[in-house]
User: What shape does this take?
Amino acid sequence: MNTSDRDMFKHTILVVLLSSVFLFLTMLLGISVGSTTRNWREILDVLGSLTRGNSLASTIIWKIRFPRVTLAALVGSTLSLGGLTFQALLRNPLAEPYILGISGGAAVGAITGILLGLSNFPGVSLLSFIGSMLTLFIVILISSGKNSREDSLLLAGVMVNAFCSSIIIFLVSLTLDARLHSIMFWLMGDLSLSSPEKVFMLLLFLLPCFVTIYSLARPLNLIVMGRETAENLGVNTRLVYLVLVVLVSLMVSAVVCQSGLVGFVGLVIPHLLRLIIGADHRLLIPASIFGGAGYMVLCDVLARVLPSQGEMPVGVITAMIGAPLFIFLLKSSKS
Amino acid sequence: MNEVIQVEDIEVFYGKEQHIIRGLSFEVQRGEFFIIIGPNGSGKTTLLKALAGVLRIKKGKISILGKPLALYSRRELARILAVVPQEPLADCPFTVFEIVLMGRTPHLGILEFEKDVDFEAAVDAMQFTGVYHLKDRKLSELSSGEKQRVAIARALCQQPSIVLLDEPTSALDLSHQLNVMDLMESLKKERKLTVVMVSHDLNLAAMYADRLLLIKEGQSVSTGNPEVVLTFEKLEQTYNCVLLVDEHPAGKVPRVTLVPKKFIR
Assistant: This one.
């Protein structure tokens, strides 16, 4: 798409329209697929009438499937937007909340909070946020030393992530506390354990975050050009960095508490979108929100449909798609 | 008020004692082509960064258009002062047009889309610097001379009254050097801009500057028009090498010629 024309506004509308249609269709698919398969007519009936009658179909769709699909969408949009933001801030196309260890730090914080018997909000959420900020700080500290190499950011992230995973396994297997979920939930993600109320709270929390990040799209474009250039063009880069790092860490830790660790979404979606719509964050941010959401809903559908019995953690699907792409990107960025 | 930039007794140092700039004072007049020269490591680039407000000064005062630099917000400053850094354009996935249009940032609100005025400013800047025909190209497809002109176009698109440049000719061949310097002179004459440039090419500086500032180890050696600054004594003292100073055969400016050891008997 050629953006060097006079219609940035039209392009924005077009991108939002197309990506939200994609999200809508995937959500429809997500709602109609499940262990008790319903036919399309029945599902459309329930969705169309919007009645919350007592029929079995209505209960399954509105009480179980709809919250789950919405959670998948929120997780996907947050992770993909987080990846996009970190890739711009750190000027590294491989940066991503999971790979940088931020998700892992959030999970360790959340588990600690649960074990201490804190309430969900603010106790567990706050510790989870502190965990994510702390890991981010450590990773940046390790990688910004004097004799740091180009890929030391990623190495530091991978190591911190491995360390966090081992702490998770350690804590969970040590206590066998029923409140803690399973090791599998924390390491590979699980979208089935949330409640409609929590999903609704998450939505309320995330929406203003999305809007704030979108309002910083232009400064992000300039930061991609270099921090000093951005300063010279009138951007208060210190403030922009601070706001975005705090905001993304908050969002990611809120999501991790509801879904566990789901990796590579923030790598796949921004990369794909950059190939299609170019480098302008005014388009990439809305596209990542809707595109990441739709992608996650699709991955969740696969995780529910592929096993002949039960379901598999959604993180398995995203890692099977994302890890090979990561290797490919690493390889092509070196040559 | 004719002083566009006023620098009073500024100091910049890294760590505890390592001074980069000490006790430097000068002023730049409105509509002047002002060139800062000096040996490597004399603090030229540091001085330019201090003027751009990117680097904090530890002592002294810098005023831009009569107002202390420290009182400007970044956005406010970017509306009157544009910077073309030494390596102006890192490889990035944007087109020339998009890059030049970024110069409008300090004039636009957070969620505002570019209006006709902004597109006109960008087109005008690209035409003035001769890069309009490249507008849909990616940066990686350009030569270093073209990249330099794109960076200048972006600065021009900011519609500033002052432009700071850090050695814009250092990576260019002879004709492109003249091309960029002529462009800066036309900015000064046709657009009434004040141009402040760092250069290590003494002859280009002599041919184009209205006034020069010669610095060594962060201190001012001399300031004034080229005839005053570019003398044998001052240059020998600053650069510690043998050189000849005579008059340019085609114009009334000093000319500096290097003299290697093997020519001296």
